[in-house]
Structure formats: structure tokens, C-alpha cells
Amino acid sequence: MNKFKKGASSLYLALIFLFLYAPILVLIVLSFNDSMSRTVWGGFTLKWYANLSSNDNIMEALGTTIKITLTSSIFATILGTTAAIGIHYMKKRHTAIMLGATNIPLLNADIVTGISLMLLFTRFTPLGEFSVILAHIAFSVPYVIFNVLPRLQSLSEACFEAATDLGATPMYAFYKVVWPEIFPGVLSGFLMALTMSLDDFTITYFTKGAGVNTLSTMLYTQLRKGIQPELYALSTILFLLAFALLLVINFKGSARKEVVKNEK
Amino acid sequence: MEFIQFDHVSKSYEKQLILDELDLYIKENTFVTLLGPSGCGKTTTLRLLGGFEKPDSGKIYLNGNDITALPANLRPINTVFQKYALFPHMTIEENIGFGLKIQKKSKDYINDKIKYALKLVNLDGFEKRSIDSLSGGQQQRIAIARAIVNEPKVLLLDEPLGALDLKLRQSMQYELMKIKQELGITFLYVTHDQEEALTMSDTIVVMNQGYIQQIGTPEDIYNEPENAFVADFIGESNIIEGIMIKDELVSFLGVQVPCVDKGFGTMKPVDVVIRPEDVELDAPGKGFMDGVITDCLFKGVHYELDVQCGEYEWLVHTTKYFEVGQKVSLNVIPFNIQIMNKPESEDEEVLKEDDQ
């Protein structure tokens, strides 16, 4: 009976992982497929990877994406972290209002956010990379806030006071006592902003204007002509990068816990 | 001018007045306890001295210098917080050395100080351990060590033993007194636990609703409470309305009883305080008042009895067992009858009603 239970649960788990990862697996397999067809295996090749660097369309979109993603994530992290600190020290009622306001961009349909941002931006600035960056900052900030705020809340209020009591200036107390405690939240907020920005299509599409393409919008335009296999290769690389990043974060997290355990 | 002086200090939060024109003097090298129920303003007083709050009006002096506007990091005062407030990402060594590092002391000096402080709180050899590997009592000791290595002129303690269990609390009380003796600095201790206050303090300041009710030695506060609030808050007591007929004679509950208090005038309304352990029980008719035992609870060292005498129910502590329903008489020697003035001003009256 027990054996059966165990077998059934492993099977169930295997099925879940299969559904989750089969599409990505197909993509990875296709990136090594020496055939333009999506259904026929034409042998193993690395030529799509080799072709990547010579495809101007892709390289330009990649460059734009990196630029937009990094800039918007960094600014969103700074804004979000300072906002979280501000919200944390507000009066209770104001905190509730601010958190409600922070929630709206998360709940709002991307298409509504996209159109409204476009309408707003066209009034002040031509659409282009800059407007996309502004839009990405706008929708990334809530993710940072929601990653940093719980960290602040778990930090004892008195810790900051204790530091100033021991002679630290407010700046030094923040840097030495508050920052180390909230840093993991800031980092995960930054990584989430990174993912959201990299991932976004709808809002980017409405705010990018003509001539600017990120990877997601370029993929969309390519759909009409049929997707080039180089894009499978690019997607595979991006997936592996994200996967590696995840591994590093998890490993670091558990390593830290391990140290604490050993000291006990 | 005294070592620490609060001069007409007022403080309110969101329009609620916490401290009203507080005047308080504290002598150097004493163990002073601010005692009162929650919301009485004792923690606010401590935080004002620590520099975590600014008064709305009034001045605070330390050693003759006006420190009202001085930020917390520049005051020669250190604090032991209620919830310890240790820095979770630092080792014990780093926690204790935090203040010394800011003062840019040499490494050897810091290490020596850490060793000394850990020895003082009985945690030798804990330097490299992490904070979460410690029990609550140990964390509290570290918090004390972290505060005293900086050699403050005043150590503030904000209900530091509140989270500990009874046994640990008692042993920490003795350790705190020992540390106080060793360091020879001023301790300002905040608690709502009257037993803690009576055990450790040189001087107790009883507070309620932002006002100081009485300042005195533990013996004074316990034996001669100045008003009904203090009598009620410090230990248990029987507080009865009475009339001072003349010097050394008081009337309450329909009987006249000799006492030792003088100078209240004649036929003056007063409050009479009699501690439960000062009431002696005797056979009916032998004391100043007869009654019936209505309740008898075993409390370890003594029995706690309720004795109904007409309208009034007395609280009595005795080491002898009495049956419920047994008829007895009460007796109190004159020395143990404490007479207090009735509150005169309306303000005082309000305070008294609010406590009940």
C-alpha cells in the first residue's frame, strides 16, 4: 500500500513537471534541429547559435532589451526601496492607502496600462526607448515594494533606535543595521523587476513607437513571416541564463542557512 | 541642579496628552524605577531621556547641560530595549562592539571590553555565536552587555525582564543589582511589575496618567503610600473611606480605631489603608470588628481570605487555615493603619476614578 502511494505520488509529480517543462524542452530541442521545419528532425546542429550574432534584427532587439531592462530595473529598485521605507514609517491608515495604490498597477490589465501610458506619454515626449523605460519603471516599482516591505516589517523597530542609541548617526545606522536586513528583499525585488521587464509585451508594444523593438515585440512582428530558428537558440540561451540565476539565488540562500545551523 | 532633571516636560501623541508638565529629579549613581500601569507615561519618560522622542515643551538636563535637542547618538546614555533589539545579522561580538567601533577604539581595547562585558553578564566565551542560537534570557544579557561596554553615564532599561519567566526574572534581578554595584552608574528602570521595583530600586517613582503619584524608597512607597492609587498599585490593600476624628483616632465602617497619624485636622474625610497581611484574625468579639469568612484560597506561603463585615469585604493574608463560614473578629495594631488624604483637586479625583 505504502509503495503504491509512493509510486503514485512520484508519477503525479513527474506529470506536473512534464506539463510545466515539456514546452521549454521542445524549444530547446528545436534550437538544435538542422531543419527549418517545426515538426521534422533534421539532425543535430549548432548553426542557429552561430547565426545569432550575424542576425542584425535579433542583435539589435537584444541590445535594446538589455538596455531597457537593466535601466528600468535599477531605477525601479531605487524608487521601490525608498518608497517601501517611506510606507513602512507612515501612519497605519496612510500605509493602507499607499498599499492600495501600489496594488492597482499589479491588478490593472496590461492592455489598459499600456494604452493609458501611451496616451500620457504622447502628450509630453515622442514614443521611443525612453518612454518604454518609463513605462517599465512604472509597472516594476510595485514588485520591488512588495519584496522589500515584508523585510522591513520583520526587522524590529527598535534595532534602528538601538544603533543610534549606541552612537550611530541615522545614515550609519541605516547602512549597518537596516540595509543588511532588507538587502535580500531588494535583490529579489530587482530580479523580479528584471523578469517582468524582460517578459513584458503588451505595455512595451503600446509605448515603444516606431522603429524600436525589444525581443518580445520583435518576436511578434516575426510571427507574420514565420519564426526563424535563430530565435529558438536565443530563447534557449535566455532560459538557461534565468535558470542559472535561479540556481545561484537558491544556493546562496541555503548556504546562509547552513552557516547558521552549523554555529548552533 | 540634580544629575538628571526634567523641567516641565510635556509630551502628547496624536493629540493625546501622555506627560503633563512633568518635573523629575534623579540623583547620580542611584537605581531609579519608574513604576506604573501601561499608558502611565513611564516609557515615554525613558524615551525622552534616551533621545528617541522630543518633548513638546519643557527641558531635560543631564549633569547641568541642556540635552533636550541633542540627538540620541550624541547622548552619553545607553538603553536596554524591551525586545532586546539585537542586530540579527551580527555575531555577539559584533553586537557588543558596535558602539565601541563607532567611537573608533582600538581593536585590543574593544576585545578586552567585550570579554569583560560577557564575564559581567555570565556569558564568557560566547563571542562568536550567532544571535538566534541564544535563549531569551541570554539575549537579554547580551543586550545589557552591549549597552554597558560604552560606559554610559546613565543606563536606561525598558521593561527588560518582561519576556522572561518568573525564575529567570528573579535571578536577573539580582544580576542587575550586582552589575549596578560593579559599574556605579545611574540606572533608570521602567516596569509595571511592583515586585521588581520593590526588589531592585533605591528610589521608586510611581506614575499614573502622566503624573507622578509618589517618589520614595521602596519601604516608603509600600508602607506609607501617599494616595489610594499608590496603595492600590503597590501590593494589595484594603482601602476604606473614613473620617479622622482627631489626632490618633480614626473612624471607619462604623467603628473608632486608634492609629498613629497626626496632623490631619478634626473630622476630616480620609482614606484608610490596611495591608492584608497586617490584619489579625481572632475569636469573635475580641477585635474591633466581627465578620464571616467567605472565601479561603491557598497561595503557597499564605492563605488569602475574604472576610465579610457588614457592607465591606476585607482581604486578609494569614498563615493559618480558616473554614469558609467561620465567624472571626479583625484586629490591626495602630502602627499598621495608614491614613491618606482624600484627593482634593478635581484632577486628582479624575485620576482616582479612572484607575478603578
Protein topology:
The complex is a heterodimer of chains A (264) and B (356).
Chain A: H1 2-31, H2 47-52, H3 56-88, H4 92-107, H5 110-124, H6 129-154, H7 157-165, H8 170-199, H9 202-207, H10 215-225, H11 229-263
Helix pairs in contact in A: 1-11, 3-6, 3-8, 4-6, 6-8, 7-8
Chain B: E1 4-13, E2 16-26, E3 31-35, H1 42-50, E4 57-62, E5 65-66, E6 77-80, H2 92-102, H3 107-120, H4 136-148, E7 154-158, H5 166-183, E8 186-191, H6 194-200, E9 203-208, E10 211-216, H7 218-223, H8 228-233, E11 238-246, E12 249-252, E13 255-258, E14 268-274, E15 280-282, E16 289-298, E17 303-309, E18 312-318, E19 327-331, E20 338-341, H9 346-355
Parallel strand pairs in B: 3-8, 3-9, 6-7, 7-8
Antiparallel strand pairs in B: 1-2, 1-4, 4-5, 9-10, 11-12, 11-14, 12-13, 14-20, 15-19, 16-17, 16-19, 17-18
Helix pairs in contact in B: 2-3, 2-4, 3-4
Provide an overview of this structure.
- Chain A has helices at 2-31, 47-52, 56-88, 92-107, 110-124, 129-154, 157-165, 170-199, 202-207, 215-225, 229-263.
- By secondary structure, chain A is mainly α.
- Chain A has a domain at 56-227: MetI-like (MetI-like fold), CATH 1.10.3720.
- In chain A, helix 3 runs antiparallel to helix 8 (170-199) and helix 6 (129-154) packs across helix 8.
- Chain A is globular.
- Chain B is α+β, with helices and mostly antiparallel strands and 356 residues long.
- Chain B folds into three domains: 4-223, Rossmann fold (3-Layer(aba) Sandwich); 235-275 and 333-356; 280-331, OB fold (Dihydrolipoamide Acetyltransferase, E2P).
- Chain B is 26% helix and 34% strand.
- Chain B has helices at residues 42-50, 92-102, 107-120, 136-148, 166-183, 194-200, 218-223, 228-233, 346-355; strands at 4-13, 16-26, 31-35, 57-62, 65-66, 77-80, 154-158, 186-191, 203-208, 211-216, 238-246, 249-252, 255-258, 268-274, 280-282, 289-298, 303-309, 312-318, 327-331, 338-341.
- Chain B is elongated and about 75 Å long.
- Residues 345-356 of chain B have low confidence and may be disordered.
- At the A-B interface, helix 7 and helix 8 of A face strand 6 and helix 2 of B.
